[in-house]
User: Which sequence fits this backbone?
């Protein structure tokens, strides 16, 4: 039988071998192309995601994308990806794509949100000063904002900061960033002043639009275990609240010229305490 096989191979026309070689090469090339295409696609590691019509969680749901699917990213906008899946096109939150086990239908709403964190002042704008004028508000708004941002990111929130270093950012740019990113919430961090008298202390939450009362009260209530007293929720005619097209609050987390508050304002533990409570408050608010 072996001899028969040898004779058959020996008697096979050369043209046949050439055709077989060409076909094999084409098949191999197609296989390589398909593998390259597959590896160039993004795998959904979340348990389930919504495909939205627009790049925000408020827009209509076009489809659902289950775990393990591979999608093609066409373009990006504010950490949202425009993709094609099952002949449908839409937007998905890129920050949740790689979160193992995240299920949009059963998990908390907070991870789906985009929150703009605004460290008040910066650069040439020092903000208020401590009683001895040695410490500037801009330093501690940035420190606290970074801790809050980090805590929220650990909850898989899409966090955007108006500044990440000591630089001046106009009030208009801060509010525009919230609008452009279609933020679910804008939070501005500040520290208050009693005009150098040092007679006032405590934290306060401010809102301008009545539609922001609920989030302001939710945050204020969650912060009531801080070592500085609560001054409650108040109306604040501040630019970043008044001119903001997105839900917005401003948090004055103590008085720079208060001998009591400055100790906490400078404390990393206090800043983290605020970050922890803020995360819990927002989780409650969005759910």
Assistant:
């Amino acid at each position: 039988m072996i001899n028969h096989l040898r004779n058959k191979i020996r008697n096979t026309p050369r043209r046949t071998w050439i055709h077989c070689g060409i076909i094999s090469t084409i098949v191999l090339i197609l296989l390589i192309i398909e593998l390259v295409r597959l590896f160039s696609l993004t795998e959904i590691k979340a348990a389930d995601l919504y495909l939205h019509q627009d790049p925000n969680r408020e827009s209509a749901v076009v489809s659902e994308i289950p775990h393990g699917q591979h999608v093609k990213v066409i373009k990006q906008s504010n950490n949202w990806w425009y993709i094609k899946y099952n002949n449908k096109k839409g937007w998905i939150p890129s920050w949740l794509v790689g979160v193992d086990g995240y299920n949009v239908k059963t998990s908390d709403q907070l991870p789906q949100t985009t929150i703009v964190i605004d460290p008040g002042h910066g650069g040439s704008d020092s903000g208020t000063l401590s009683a001895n004028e040695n410490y500037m508000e801009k330093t501690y708004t940035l420190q606290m904002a970074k801790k809050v941002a980090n805590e929220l990111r650990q909850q898989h929130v899409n966090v955007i900061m108006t500044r990440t270093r000591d630089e001046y950012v106009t009030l208009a740019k801060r509010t525009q960033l919230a609008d452009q990113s279609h933020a679910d919430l804008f939070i501005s961090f500040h520290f208050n002043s009693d005009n150098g008298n040092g007679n006032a202390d405590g934290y306060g939450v401010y809102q301008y639009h009545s539609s922001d009362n609920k989030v302001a009260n939710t945050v204020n209530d969650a912060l009531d275990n801080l070592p500085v007293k609560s001054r409650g929720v108040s109306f604040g005619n501040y630019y970043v609240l008044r001119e903001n097209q997105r839900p917005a609050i401003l948090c004055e987390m103590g008085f720079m010229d208060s001998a009591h508050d400055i100790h906490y304002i400078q404390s990393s533990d206090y800043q983290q305490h605020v970050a922890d409570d803020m995360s819990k408050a927002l989780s409650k608010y969005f759910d």
In short: The mean pLDDT is 90.
